[in-house]
Every structure is written in C-alpha cells, then in structure tokens.
Amino acid sequence: MRLLTLILLALLLLLQYDLWFGKNSLSDYFQAKHEVVDQLQKNQKLMQRNKVLTAEIDDLRNGDGAVEEHARNELGLIRQNETFYRFIPAQSKSNE
C-alpha cells in the first residue's frame, strides 16, 4: 500500500510539473490569452480605419464634392475666377 501511495504521489508531482513548467503550461496559456486580447484590439482599430477609408473611396467615386474638397485641401487648387485669401495670425508681442 505504501508503494502505491508513493507511485501515485510521484505521478501527481510529475503532472503538476508539466502543468506549471512544461510545454503548454499555465504561463504559456496566459501569455497566449494576452496576445489574443492585444491582437483583437489591433484588429478593431484596423477595422475602424478600413471603414473610414471605404467611406472616403465611396465619396471620391460617387461625388464631385469630395474630389473638389480633396483638390482644395491637399493640392491647394482654386476655381477659375476665385480669389484666394490666406489669413496669417498676428505675431504675439512677447518679444518686446
């Protein structure tokens, strides 16, 4: 009976070692779980970015207003017979 108890205890210790320190142990599980959470957050950000880009593509394909806005903001273009005004903020008088 004592020999059986020692064998079972040794088996239990061996299984516990694998659980805590072996391949696919609890620390590996928690690390993988953390990596999954991080990847899900990255995926959410990328999905939101893709929605914005898709909406911008649809605007550019379907409407002239978006193309004109893009030309004005990004390229600095103006229409014929328009006057371009540029407002420069006044310099602060802290240097005096």
Overview of the molecule:
With 96 residues, this protein is mainly α. Helices cover 72% and strands 0% of the residues. Helix 2 packs across helix 3.
Order of helices and strands: HHH
Give the fraction of residues assigned to helices.
over 70%
> Quick one: overall form?
elongated
Average residue-wise pLDDT: 86
Continuous helix count: 3
The low-confidence parts are: none
Number of strand segments: 0
| Ends distance | 98 Å
Assembly level: single chain
Instruction: Output the structural class.
Output: mainly alpha
| Residue share in β-strands | under 5%
Largest sheet: none
Descriptive keywords:
single chain, 96 residues, 3 helices, 0% strand
Q: Could you give a quick summary of the protein structure above?
A:
This protein has 96 residues and is mainly α. Helices cover 72% and strands 0% of the residues.
Structural topology:
Elements: H1 2-21, H2 26-62, H3 64-75
Helix pairs in contact: 2-3
